């Protein structure tokens, strides 16, 4: 049915991609205007939907699949927990078996069903479907929360032994990748379909969020040959990093008991990230000597010396290692093997003796202050310890937890952080993109930041008023001179002498003139920022009176003639009365329109995560992104990069560089520090060249963001793109009614601004490829439209992993395909 409707769909322009970045094939429908045809034109006859045949419904699903069910959470009330829950879902049990129709639909591995305390009833068949078992914590068991423990799913083999759990093909000799949760095994054709982007390592999509099989903990962080074959080196490294440090894959903190007390997540993180963590840590009971760093299983002798002074677990018990020697070290009665080592080191152990041993092996008797010696001072003692399988201190031990205090959760928190570097030429829109991103992803501004933004907006308002007042004087002088010359001419011709005209449309009252002269005086001296908005309370009434004056309104109506008045000034001048008040609070649009907002000294940073969109919900789980992934957007002012971008070394771990170029800069010029005048587009190109050729970005992906498209649409109709010498070959064929055609929805020709955007994008792509031999991605952004900023940042997320889905870089056996944005060659757009 789907294929039939697809064939009947109206034709669209066809795109031919032969693996070349610069090839597009277009087809346009035009009305035939020629001699009459000698044959009948084929027609598409209408069809009746009732006449379309339908396949019969299958009686039972093939392969007896057990589909995954979302695990519900147990209610905290014990009385409500025993009740069964009824959930309406059409994914619990299906009657329609269509898994054999298309191999593109991924088959989930069959998991063994377990007795369940929660049941679900199918909404149509009323059939009971069992979910995973929910294990209730024992009454005497210590738990950090009231949440239930979910049983780890286990895959059940459907095909023959050694076959893939999805396609049921292969043998024992076939190379397979194993899920670290359910132990399902997949061939190289199915592993990426079943495991997707692997946000938590090598797990099935349905196993994400579950704890791993403890028997496979030793494999964490060790990539297989299959992954190295399917993915790039950077992707494999990131997957292994996620697999090692993701919180879900760590040992359950409450299952590690140290000195009689279960650990919490912070303590477990500290234990795993110290300079000398326990090796092969598994759930169980352990004892830990904070003073010396001795570590061992409860009831056994020490097996390792880890970092000392870690605040984990409870107090060390005397019988922690079940020693029977009546000799204690730091309150623990030692074993006979440890006693032999003390005697070998010539430590007096006659009778009942209590020693205090530090991390470096120095010892003293309890109650004494003098150090009597060092246990491991002699190499023979270390050799004897190795013979008796006792640990010896490592040279990397740090005293008193000096290194541990700064580690904390850094390693584990960094596992989900991907970095975007946002940079561009001056006034290219990077600040607006950054502010829009903070508003989009709910990263609020602090109280100090909002206060500084308010001061910047009010300061800009007085600067805009000063520009209006300066223009008013020019308009007044010009009109005054013109009126007097006309009046003198009329008086001379009539032979009468009239009075000189001293007032015009642009004249203001003496009170406002004094205020105007005062503002202009501070503007000329460059001290306007020091006066305003500090004096906003005093001069707010004058601002309101000034804005309501007819002369100021007449000047404002000629704002298009004032060249040094920014385009965003109109937004603030219209609200000058509100903004000049002392109780003014900036709105979101005020923050976006404001100029000169610097949230930090040349560098701004924010962390965010992408909310799940409606479009992503409709995608196959393989192609969805993990919503828990965190991203960091770093905005850097170009002047902060130093001469020839020498400070780019600090951003060597950047995943994607977002370079911003304003489309409206093609006819504007800038003056550098040496006094040389250059086109802004060419200056941005030079800055971009310094960044892309820097050694730290040799393997980094780049996304070119072309901004200010709304202003570009208006400007290109008045100023040709060839004003920039780099765009001299832009020569599209323009019809006499191209403006009308660009508005009409039936036109096959894109607007001039759209063609120019595609042309500029292709110029940068070709130039980038000639310098680096790599692919440049391009996105169009209007900073004041949140949807375009969101699309650009989500596109950067796709760029980060584009090699995984690009069919041109995958082997023939891969079934995953994707599409990427490509623009056609310059010649194509010159012919439009």
TrEMBL record:
GO MF annotations, alphabetized: G-protein beta/gamma-subunit complex binding; GTP binding; GTPase activity; metal ion binding
Keyword terms: GTP-binding, Magnesium, Metal-binding, Nucleotide-binding, Transducer
SUPFAM superfamilies recorded: P-loop containing nucleoside triphosphate hydrolases, Transducin (alpha subunit), insertion domain
Record flagged with keyword Nucleotide-binding: yes
Source superkingdom: Eukaryota
GO biological process, one term: G protein-coupled receptor signaling pathway
Start and end residues of each stretch annotated as Disordered: 80-155
Residues that, per the record, bind Mg(2+): 598
InterPro entries on file: Gprotein_alpha_su, GproteinA_insert, P-loop_NTPase, XLG_GTP-binding
Stored Pfam families: G-alpha
Binding residues annotated for GTP, in chain numbering: 592-598
PROSITE patterns for this protein: G_ALPHA
Protein's recorded name: Extra-large guanine nucleotide-binding protein 1
Gene: LOC106755602
């Amino acid at each position: 049915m789907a294929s039939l409707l697809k064939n009947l769909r109206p034709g669209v322009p066809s795109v031919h991609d032969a693996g070349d970045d610069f090839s597009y094939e277009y087809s346009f429908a035009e009305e035939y205007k020629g001699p009459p045809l000698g044959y009948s034109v084929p027609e598409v006859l209408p069809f009746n939907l009732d006449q379309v045949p339908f396949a019969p419904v299958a009686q039972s699903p093939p392969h007896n699949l057990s589909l995954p069910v979302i695990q519900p959470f147990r209610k905290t009330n014990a009385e409500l927990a025993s009740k069964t829950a009824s959930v309406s879902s059409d994914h619990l049990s299906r009657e329609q078996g269509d898994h054999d129709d298309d191999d593109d639909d991924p088959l989930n591995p069959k998991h063994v069903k377990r007795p369940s305390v929660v049941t679900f009833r199918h909404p149509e068949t009323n059939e009971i479907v069992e979910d995973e078992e929910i294990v209730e914590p024992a009454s005497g068991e210590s738990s950090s929360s009231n949440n239930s423990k979910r049983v780890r799913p286990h895959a059940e083999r459907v095909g023959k032994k050694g076959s893939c759990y999805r396609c049921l093909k292969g043998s024992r000799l076939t190379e397979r990748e194993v899920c670290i949760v359910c132990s399902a095994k997949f061939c190289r054709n199915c592993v990426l379909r079943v495991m997707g982007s692997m946000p938590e390592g090598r797990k099935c999509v349905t196993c994400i969020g579950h704890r791993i099989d403890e028997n496979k903990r030793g494999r964490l962080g060790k990539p297989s040959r299959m992954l190295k074959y399917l993915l790039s080196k950077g992707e494999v490294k990131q997957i292994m990093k996620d697999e090692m440090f993701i919180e879900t894959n760590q040992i359950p903190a409450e299952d590690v008991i140290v000195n009689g007390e279960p650990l919490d997540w912070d303590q477990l993180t500290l234990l795993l990230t110290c300079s000398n963590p326990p090796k092969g840590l598994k759930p169980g009971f352990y004892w830990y000597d904070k003073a010396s760093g001795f570590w061992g299983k409860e009831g056994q002798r020490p097996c390792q010396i880890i970092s000392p002074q870690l605040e984990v677990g409870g107090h060390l018990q005397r019988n922690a290692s079940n020693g029977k020697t009546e000799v204690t070290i730091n309150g623990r009665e030692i074993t006979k093997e440890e006693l032999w080592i003390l005697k070998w080191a010539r430590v007096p152990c006659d009778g009942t003796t209590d020693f205090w041993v530090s991390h470096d092996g120095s010892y003293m008797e309890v109650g004494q202050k003098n150090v009597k010696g060092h246990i491991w001072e002699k190499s023979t003692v270390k050799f004897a310890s190795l013979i008796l399988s006792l640990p010896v201190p490592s040279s990397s031990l740090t005293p008193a937890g000096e290194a541990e205090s700064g580690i904390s959760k850094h390693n584990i928190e960094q596992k989900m952080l991907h970095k975007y570097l946002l940079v561009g030429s001056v006034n290219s829109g990077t600040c607006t993109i950054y502010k829009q991103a903070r508003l989009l992803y709910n990263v609020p501004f602090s109280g100090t930041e909002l206060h500084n933004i308010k001061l910047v907006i009010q300061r800009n308002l007085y600067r805009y008023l000063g520009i209006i007042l300066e223009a008013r004087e020019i308009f007044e002088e010009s009109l005054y001179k013109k009126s007097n010359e006309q009046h003198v001419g009329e008086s001379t011709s009539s032979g009468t002498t009239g009075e000189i005209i001293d007032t015009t449309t642009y004249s203001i009252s003496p009170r406002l003139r004094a205020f105007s002269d005062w503002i202009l005086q501070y503007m000329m001296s460059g001290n306007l920022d020091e006066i305003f908005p500090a004096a906003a309370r005093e001069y707010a009434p004058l601002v309101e009176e000034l804005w309501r004056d007819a002369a100021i309104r007449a000047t404002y109506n000629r704002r298009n003639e004032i060249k040094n008045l920014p385009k965003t000034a109109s937004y603030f001048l219209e609200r000058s009365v509100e903004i000049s008040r002392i109780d003014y609070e900036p709105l979101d649009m005020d923050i976006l329109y404001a100029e000169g907002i610097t949230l930090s000294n040349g560098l701004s940073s924010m962390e965010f995560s992408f909310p799940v969109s409606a479009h992503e919900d409709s995608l196959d789980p393989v192609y969805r992104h993990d919503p828990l992934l965190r991203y960091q957007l770093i905005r850097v002012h170009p002047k902060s990069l130093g001469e020839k971008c020498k400070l780019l070394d600090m951003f060597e771990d950047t995943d994607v560089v977002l370079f911003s170029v304003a489309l409206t800069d093609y006819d504007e010029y800038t003056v550098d520090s040496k006094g040389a005048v250059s086109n802004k587009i060419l200056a941005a190109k030079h800055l971009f060249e310094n960044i892309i050729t820097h050694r730290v970005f040799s393997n980094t992906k780049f996304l070119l963001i072309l901004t200010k498209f709304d202003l570009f649409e208006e400007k290109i109709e008045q100023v040709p793109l060839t004003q920039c010498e780099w765009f001299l070959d832009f020569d599209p064929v323009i019809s006499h009614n191209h403006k009308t055609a660009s508005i009409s929805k039936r036109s096959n020709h894109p607007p001039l601004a759209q063609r120019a955007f595609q042309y500029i994008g292709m110029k940068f792509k070709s130039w980038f490829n000639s310098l680096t031999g790599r692919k440049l991605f391009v996105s169009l952004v209007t900073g004041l439209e949140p949807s375009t900023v969101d699309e650009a940042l989500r596109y950067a997320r796709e760029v980060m992993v584009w090699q995984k889905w690009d069919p041109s870089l995958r082997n023939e056996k891969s079934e995953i395909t994707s599409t990427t944005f490509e623009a056609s060659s310059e010649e194509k757009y010159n012919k439009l």
